[in-house]
Amino acid sequence: MVLRVGGLASGIDVDSIVKQMMTAKRVPLDKLNQAKTVMEWQRDNYRQLNSKLVDFRNNKLLKYDLSATMNSQKAVVSGNTSAVKAEANADASGIPMSVSVTKLAQKSTMPSTGSLKVDGATASLTDTLLKVKGGADSETDKYDLYINGTNFSFEKTDTISSVISTINASAAGVTATFDEISGKFSITAKNYGTDTKIDANDIKLTNKAGEAKTGSLISMLKLGAVEGASKAQVTVTNTDTKESKSYTPSSNSLLVNGVKLTFVGVTTAATGETDSDGKPVITDTPATIAIETNTDKALETITNFVQYYNELLNSLNAKVNEERYTDYPPLTDEQKEAMTDNDIELWEAKAKSGMLKGDSILKSSINSIRSILTSKLGDLSKIGITTGEYYENGKLYIDSDALQQALQTDPQSVTMIFQGNTSSEGLFDKLSSSLSGTLDKLAEKAGTSKYSADVSAAFKTESTMGKMLTDYEERIETLTDRLEVWENNYYKQFTAMETAISNYNSQSASLSSYFA
């Protein structure tokens, strides 16, 4: 630490002189700090726009691209509503249908043949396998069970509850259940059309030494023979043409003419009577499916899309065209000390303006999304969506009446424009891909997140700007240390001068005393 003498002997204001001398030396440091501040402002601007882009892409476009958001079709079930449920997809053809279900699909199962008892009472989930087996404790210690290639090993102390949990959490593809009311244990395939491969030969009871014992876990849990999976039997009739088609789906659901049918019961029932051949008379009460057009959801989706698109485009254009005031650099601490709060606020408003003026990433993004809209403009104009004047930079307008009419008369074509199909991308897909590319560029340059709209999220330091800011910080630290050395050297020189003057004054006073 340098001892600083403030001009006691010479009467010179050393601090003021050193400060003036250091002012010129600090100019490069001030410029470095200003350049670093400008880059931080630019990066903050990138993050704000990144937040808008992420929100528009992830929370708007990707959700709008789901079929339900543009679905103008509604399936109405009448007749046997307790046996069949129906949900229309956006591409539902509108063909009226009747549905008859003579048999539901069944999953393969190993059902119970009786109730589990413990001490004469119905067993509970907390009872152990030893209690279920009954009798006194024995050397029997382990119960091995094989299901669909998965091996389970249970101890005599395991409870019914733990057996169920172990089986259900496994990759065996089955679900074990126990009814505490009836005391019945069963095992059922999780999926339709899957045979539960349980074989009595694969069940063995062993002791600690692994020696086979008589008895079977299957018989102990009172499980019956495996009942294989069976398919549903359904007939769908076009009520206009009276043509019918039979289906045998492996599960209790079926997609026909763009309508998802779910079967929860059969539509046939025995009357209790017999025909002339002595066969039971069966009646059928089918479910009837009609398609209605409901444009509310699609209209809401398209209207919201246009609103958010215009807002995003306006934000991008505003940043790209914002005025840049190069004569207003960031203020230094010394400059702020000489200004009022209001003057500082007005200065910084101009200093922060135009941080992204003419930015190549944003200009490229604007051109890309406008090009995508332009490529669809012919189709969009047919459904009442047009662009404004040239000076409005691609703003979209909606004729609500024309759009609603298009949704009523040809909803599939409207959906095609925005959501596309299996062979071509729609507007939402194309815009999403374009914005994804922009977000990648922002992440690479500014270190923003492609997935988070949080404007307070930390930047990635390995980005281009992150590395440049790190370089600024290192140079600022080096220059700050160098300035401190210079300042200390100045004070050393003035201290030496003050010491010399003080010595001279002392000698002069001593000599003067001889002539007094």
Structure description:
With 516 residues, this protein is α+β, with helices and mostly antiparallel strands. The chain folds into three domains: 27-67 and 297-464, no CATH class; 73-105 and 231-293, no CATH class; 109-220, no CATH class. It has helices spanning 14-25, 27-64, 129-133, 160-168, 217-220, 296-321, 333-337, 341-351, 360-375, 377-382, 400-409, 411-419, 427-446, 464-514; strands spanning 73-79, 84-88, 97-103, 109-110, 117-118, 121-122, 140-147, 150-155, 174-179, 184-189, 204-207, 212-213, 233-238, 244-247, 253-256, 259-263, 268-274, 280-284, 287-293, 385-387, 396-398. Strand 9 and strand 10 form a beta hairpin. The protein is elongated and about 155 Å long. The model has no long low-confidence stretch (mean pLDDT 87).
